[in-house]
Amino acid sequence: MRRRDRTTARRRLLRCDRCDHRYQTVAETRTVAVLAARTNGWIVDRATLCPSCAIAAARLADGRTRTAA
Question: Is 0.85 surpassed by the pTM of this model?
Answer without folding.
Answer: no
